[in-house]
Amino acid sequence: EPGLIIDLGGKFDKSFNESAYNGAMRWSEETGESYMETELQSEAQREQTMRRMAERGANPIVVLGFANASTLEKVAPDYPDTDFAIVDMVVEQPNVQSIVFSEHEGSYLVGMMAAMASETGTVSFVGGMDVPLIRKFACGYAQGAKAVNPDITVIENMTGTTPAAWNDPVKGGELVRAQIGQGSDVVFAAAGGTGVGVLQTAADEGIEAIGVDSNQNYLHPGTMLTSMVKRVDNAVYDAFNAAEAGTFETGIQVKDLEDDGVGVALDEYNEELVTDDMRSAVEEAKQQIISGEIEVHDYTSDDSCPV
Amino acid sequence: MSDPAIELRGISKSFGAVKANKDIAIRVMPGTIHGIIGENGAGKSTLMSILYGFYRADRGEIFIRGERTDIPDSQAAIRAGIGMVFQHFKLVQNFTVLENIVLGAEEGALLTTSLGKARTLLKQLSEDYELQVDPDARIEDLGVGMQQRVEILKALYRQADILILDEPTGVLTPSEADHLFRILEGLKREGKTIILITHKLREIMEITDTVSVMRRGEMTATVKTAETGPEELAELMVGRKVLLRVEKKAAQPGARVLEIEDLRVVDGSGVERLRGISLDVRAGEILGIAGVAGNGQSELLEVLGGMRSGTGRVRVNGDELDLVGPRADARTRRARGIAHVPEDRQHEGLIMDFHAWENVAFGYHADPAYNRGLLMDNDALRRDTERKIAKFDVRPADCWQTAKNFSGGNQQKIVIARELERDPDLLLVGQPTRGVDIGAIEFIHQQIVALRDAGKAILLVSVELDEILSLSDRIAVMFDGRIMGERLPSQTDERELGLMMAGITDTDRGHTHAEVEGNLAHVHGKVG
Amino acid sequence: MDFLTIVQILDSSIRLATPLLLACLAGLFSERAGVFDIGLEGKMLVAAFFSAAIAATTGSVWLGLLAGVAASLVFAAIHGLASITFRGDQLISGVALNFLAAGTTVLIAQDWFAQGARTPALTGAARFAPIDLPFADALSGIPLLGPLYAQALSGHTILVYVGLLAVPATWYVLFRTRFGLRLRAVGENPGAVDTAGVSVIRLRYAAVLICGLLCGLAGAYLATGLAAGFTQDMTAGRGFIALAALIFAKWRPWYALWACLLFGFLQAVSNRYSTIDLWIVEIPNAFVIALPYILTVVILAGFVGRATPPRAGGVPYVKER
Amino acid sequence: MEKLPRWADIALVPILNLLLALIVSGIVVALIGQNPFEAMRIMVDGAVGSTYGWGYTLFYATNFIFTGLAVAVAFHAKLFNIGGEGQAQFGSLGVALVCLAVPWPHWTLALPAAILGGALFGAGWAAIPAYLQARRGSHIVITTIMFNFIASALLVYLLVGILKAPGMAPETARFPEGAYLPTARDIFAVIGVDFGYSPLNVTFLVALLAAWLVWLLLWRTRLGYEIRAFGHSEPAALYAGISPFRITMLAMLISGALAGLMAINAVMGEQQRLLQDNVLGAGFVGIAVALMGRSHPVGVLLAAILFGALYQGGAELEFETSVPRDMVVVIQALVILFTGALDGMTRSPLERVFLRFGRRAPEPGAPAE
Ligand SMILES: Nc1ncnc2c1ncn2[C@@H]1O[C@H](COP(=O)(O)OP(=O)(O)OP(=O)(O)O)[C@@H](O)[C@H]1O
Ligand SMILES: Nc1ncnc2c1ncn2[C@@H]1O[C@H](COP(=O)(O)OP(=O)(O)OP(=O)(O)O)[C@@H](O)[C@H]1O
Ligand SMILES: [Mg+2]
Ligand SMILES: [Mg+2]
């Protein structure tokens, strides 16, 4: 029986965790089997939760988010017969699969769309917790926007420096209001539960917004330009399936544009906002990135952003 | 004959196990002043609080002007025309006089109209009854006498025609009390009925028409004032013949133990409570400090006892005491041979939730005899307690009893035992017999005199003039933070002391400090 | 910092100050009547939850508001029961109610909506819409005052204006009415009120319930005005900041307004800038966030004038020893 | 006159209150569609049904013993210390600094040093509110609440700044191996018993020792005598030459130190690195524990174990059913409400009953302890 530990913010954050949850549900529905699931309430419970899962015999155990890395590093060796998978971070242990995404590439694409949709020449970004991972989003986004319009202004704000930053919709709303005041008319929220407030305020104030992780287009049809989907659901689904089939591999797995690990969400909710130009430009850029023609800088590679 | 203004029948009230009122009956005729006397804790305040609807009686009936009336709350009492001035005033300190007066008796939901009306009425009332107060003054800026007037005005504003005053003179100087009595007589002439609670016989004789005596929750007698005298009342009050004077030999004053020069104390709100006190107390003598409560006696004891700081010079056995700083505390004072029986045993002298044996160490808990290394030697402490309990006849003789479970007199005995047994050079005693009944009073007085006879210096503070007169070898009167003068008990009387307590010195008799010293020398035939 | 930014920060300050202000006035009523209330936080939280939950299920923000106020009133009544009727410790009761709110909101939210500890996002009539004050457009052209009026003051939801109007209303009730006189008296000397023939118990309950009502509004504003739905622990210490503001304001309504605006302003600034540059020193965000708390301590320490609470505050009224 | 016999005051009233709290909690569980008895079973089983359960129960209990004692000591001086949370947070900083400063060769060296660090930092964080209360009369309840917030801001500042380990999470580096405390599992393994994996560690023994020391302090030393006297009556303390300033400071310092010691268990014993939120409300649970335990170390011990079981049982409950762990917070709230604030609700009817059914035989001279 596989296990999934939903991270802080909860499985209905409409974003990162929800995506993972959906993957697990999909697996459960397709196979008709059940899995163990538990939701973290606080930082300090990570260890107890992981261990309890392991003690109960869950295998593999999928944990979500970089914050689990140091705990997993300690727990994994105690359960050599259990496989673990961690999303968003690399943990080098013989029984751990590390799943990382090329968020900068997906962000590049939505950055392009933002720049094309913007009339004011100013677009913005609201991040959750100020960590390199989120800067990676921001940096990809800025690169994409500049690629379309080199003169564009990209405003960037982070919600905070602690995990609480993932779950502060009120502050998210305040930040985007400030950005609107500075002229932004498209905002990209990569902020977990905080993003809900960002998208809501964008809808209230009538500017376009870009969701993250899950496809969030349905939240506010008419103002949701698109979502930068990060297929955590697929990662979880695959891990569960592989374990069942006995093909679970440890080591690093990179999910990028090529294998649809990240991408741009196009559906009936944003049909009206996405022009054909955008569609073709994004498609073209995607191919170029896959082929290596365009190289999107990854912030985490050197902790800096060229734009 | 008309119906009595008030008639109570079979009123009983218990607080937990304490029976404060037992089956009380009383009749008060309209247009009279009816006194109620009784010792502390006799149940006077409880009875009046029941009449005013502040407490509810467990049993009994109330008749107002012949009609049976239920008084479940103060509102009902006010409706029945009853007004009450409580022993402890019920005023809102940071409200103005006017606001206090209309509180609860406002007309309409908005204040402006009520306040305006009240202002006019207040003016009228003040003129009618010599009750001048500034309607816009804040209560906290008024003296007690003024505050009391506000309380009376409150009752009159509510058109009370039955007015209850609970120990109104306890905080007043004799002249303020006289003024109050004139007001009461005026009210009586208007046909109002007044109930006056006090335990001062003199006041009863002076102003009341009839008087009821309470003892231990029971109403022991009701008599016409004209047909009785103080001796009879005193006997009724305490239940047996009262010993008016303490038996004691003449004092043999020795060297000066306590010397105070220009002692000043400023309290937390910046008011100067002691304004330059100078006194001495000699070995083998009791100096009594007389005064109306609140004139600085408490502060004097507290500063000497190390409970608050002050300025000036105080010497004990010639060594100067610190009046401020870390060494101005009670522990250092004890180390200097000063023992202190505080005025308020329940809040200061004892920890009510501690056992008797723990209380016997109170203040002396650092004494090496009670300690063994880092820990306290509880066995030694209990042995010591057993001894003191036996010697001072504390009942029950159980050192595991919690302080609050002893009666008032026995609590006081524990404090006295603790302080006197330290064999101090100087004893500070405040209100040694407050709330203690007569048997215990005699015992405590004897102990104090015995200590004096053992050659110790004693500073006694009491608001009971009787006590001061019978115990002291020398009397100093305090008024408004100053010493008004000193007298020898044999050369003064209650009248003179009363005047001094009101701040009036009779210059004709002109006793200065030096003269009293001189008199003393004359009396004892030697100079200290 | 240009003028437009200042206008925006003020706009944001007003929004963020509103829940503080409502809660602060709530505390003012309660504490002026002698009942200390550190449970403002908890009352706000239940109100936030129930207003969002009912607004989400019925689609009407007004019903939500009612539900939020009702929930807050229930909590206020428990506080009253504990501290007035049973003469328990008011501080302990407040602490307990804060926990009760934190726990029950999550529990009920999870059971009701199964979306983690949150309600569905509110849209349309389930939220308060912004209101444009009269002439906002016309006046916006006037230099300085125009934008201040049109952008900072206008365009908030109704509860913001309720909060602002509650300030003079509170002042009037407290200092110009019979009820206010009695209320203040009962916080200073309940014995005086009792012997004047007025029920201390009833007055204190009235004050505690008004406190509940205002906390209800504060919580409802949080979930249906400021945000669009409930999230776990969404009050995030606002109840305590309101308490801080109350002390800062020395238990006076007008001061309360300024104190709350100041704290709202601090929050708006900390939202916008992650650090604040003060010429020489740079204040890290963590301290900007902690500033209201630090200020409170400084005020309590008496460095900025003494704050004396109502004299009978925190003490249950016991007639019989 | 004592209105209730001692046993009723000390045992009957708290037990009745606890019962009431549990009944109301049961109703809450039933209201959210779960069977309260089944929930109870899961909780009891999860908490004490295995060595694993016991391990966690006692691990949590260790935290609560420290914070409960902290609240209790302050209570005896009539100070309501709501700042346990902040003091424990600050204590955790002290523990972490000690553990990180030196490459500890062995835990027997690291533990005493960490105890010192945790206690000093905890006490330090209590010192300012204590000083303000003693010298300036600032209400300790409000200042300690404010200090909780300030402590957490300070910790955030440090953990995203100078103390942050490489990586994204705001946490310090792991402590050196030599600072790892032996767990119950390690200890039992020595005698050949297989104890389930749990973070229960030697700190539990430190907590027991602390409880005994607190008892000794309060009822056997001069300082304890002075603390209790001051707590009963401040004017009396002045009369006896007990300095209110000194007692307020010392009681709060001891209280803060005890709260700070909690970090030994949580940070050094379990997390082995400093996290931003490492106290997890234990400072507040301490209030409930002290109230339930009537501020007596033995009572605190029992109440702490009860709450430890509640916390562990609650975690299992969440795992087994859809009842969120927050159920425990509700129970905790109800316990505080019924034992702390609504105490009069059970007490006064009981007093009446006891008054009615006569005074009992004179009570034997039972010692207070
Ligand atoms: N509220 C109360 N709760 C418990 N016991 C009380 C209460 N009020 C009074 N008592 C007790 O009832 C008895 C009568 O008290 P009461 O105040 O009526 O006496 P009093 O005659 O007015 O005394 P004093 O002259 O000191 O004012 C005393 O033993 C007192 O301790
Ligand atoms: N407020 C009170 N609450 C509880 N019990 C009280 C209270 N006041 C007095 N008692 C108890 O009532 C009994 C009588 O007390 P009281 O002070 O009237 O004694 P007493 O007969 O005057 O004795 P003594 O002569 O020693 O003063 C004592 O056992 C005392 O413990
Ligand atoms: Mg009386
Ligand atoms: Mg007596």
UniProtKB/TrEMBL annotation, chain B:
<dbReference type="InterPro" id="IPR003593">
    <property type="entry name" value="AAA+_ATPase"/>
</dbReference>
<keyword id="KW-0762">Sugar transport</keyword>
<keyword id="KW-1003">Cell membrane</keyword>
<keyword id="KW-0677">Repeat</keyword>
<feature type="domain" description="ABC transporter">
    <location>
        <begin position="6"/>
        <end position="241"/>
    </location>
</feature>
<protein>
    <submittedName>
        <fullName>Nucleoside ABC transporter ATP-binding protein</fullName>
    </submittedName>
</protein>
<dbReference type="GO" id="GO:0016887">
    <property type="term" value="F:ATP hydrolysis activity"/>
</dbReference>
<keyword id="KW-0067">ATP-binding</keyword>
<comment type="similarity">
    <text>Belongs to the ABC transporter superfamily.</text>
</comment>
<dbReference type="Pfam" id="PF00005">
    <property type="entry name" value="ABC_tran"/>
</dbReference>
<dbReference type="GO" id="GO:0005524">
    <property type="term" value="F:ATP binding"/>
</dbReference>
<dbReference type="InterPro" id="IPR003439">
    <property type="entry name" value="ABC_transporter-like_ATP-bd"/>
</dbReference>
<keyword id="KW-0472">Membrane</keyword>
<keyword id="KW-0547">Nucleotide-binding</keyword>
<dbReference type="InterPro" id="IPR050107">
    <property type="entry name" value="ABC_carbohydrate_import_ATPase"/>
</dbReference>
From TrEMBL, chain C:
<dbReference type="InterPro" id="IPR001851">
    <property type="entry name" value="ABC_transp_permease"/>
</dbReference>
<keyword id="KW-0472">Membrane</keyword>
<keyword id="KW-0812">Transmembrane</keyword>
<feature type="transmembrane region" description="Helical">
    <location>
        <begin position="205"/>
        <end position="228"/>
    </location>
</feature>
<protein>
    <submittedName>
        <fullName>Nucleoside ABC transporter membrane protein</fullName>
    </submittedName>
</protein>
<keyword id="KW-1003">Cell membrane</keyword>
<dbReference type="GO" id="GO:0005886">
    <property type="term" value="C:plasma membrane"/>
</dbReference>
<dbReference type="Pfam" id="PF02653">
    <property type="entry name" value="BPD_transp_2"/>
</dbReference>
<dbReference type="GO" id="GO:0022857">
    <property type="term" value="F:transmembrane transporter activity"/>
</dbReference>
<feature type="transmembrane region" description="Helical">
    <location>
        <begin position="49"/>
        <end position="78"/>
    </location>
</feature>
<keyword id="KW-1133">Transmembrane helix</keyword>
<feature type="transmembrane region" description="Helical">
    <location>
        <begin position="90"/>
        <end position="109"/>
    </location>
</feature>
<feature type="transmembrane region" description="Helical">
    <location>
        <begin position="278"/>
        <end position="304"/>
    </location>
</feature>
<feature type="transmembrane region" description="Helical">
    <location>
        <begin position="240"/>
        <end position="266"/>
    </location>
</feature>
<feature type="transmembrane region" description="Helical">
    <location>
        <begin position="12"/>
        <end position="29"/>
    </location>
</feature>
Automatic annotation (TrEMBL), chain D:
<dbReference type="Pfam" id="PF02653">
    <property type="entry name" value="BPD_transp_2"/>
</dbReference>
<feature type="transmembrane region" description="Helical">
    <location>
        <begin position="274"/>
        <end position="291"/>
    </location>
</feature>
<dbReference type="GO" id="GO:0022857">
    <property type="term" value="F:transmembrane transporter activity"/>
</dbReference>
<feature type="transmembrane region" description="Helical">
    <location>
        <begin position="247"/>
        <end position="268"/>
    </location>
</feature>
<protein>
    <submittedName>
        <fullName>Nucleoside ABC transporter membrane protein</fullName>
    </submittedName>
</protein>
<feature type="transmembrane region" description="Helical">
    <location>
        <begin position="298"/>
        <end position="315"/>
    </location>
</feature>
<dbReference type="GO" id="GO:0005886">
    <property type="term" value="C:plasma membrane"/>
</dbReference>
<feature type="transmembrane region" description="Helical">
    <location>
        <begin position="327"/>
        <end position="346"/>
    </location>
</feature>
<keyword id="KW-0812">Transmembrane</keyword>
<feature type="transmembrane region" description="Helical">
    <location>
        <begin position="140"/>
        <end position="160"/>
    </location>
</feature>
<dbReference type="InterPro" id="IPR001851">
    <property type="entry name" value="ABC_transp_permease"/>
</dbReference>
<feature type="transmembrane region" description="Helical">
    <location>
        <begin position="53"/>
        <end position="75"/>
    </location>
</feature>
<keyword id="KW-1003">Cell membrane</keyword>
<feature type="transmembrane region" description="Helical">
    <location>
        <begin position="110"/>
        <end position="128"/>
    </location>
</feature>
<feature type="transmembrane region" description="Helical">
    <location>
        <begin position="200"/>
        <end position="219"/>
    </location>
</feature>
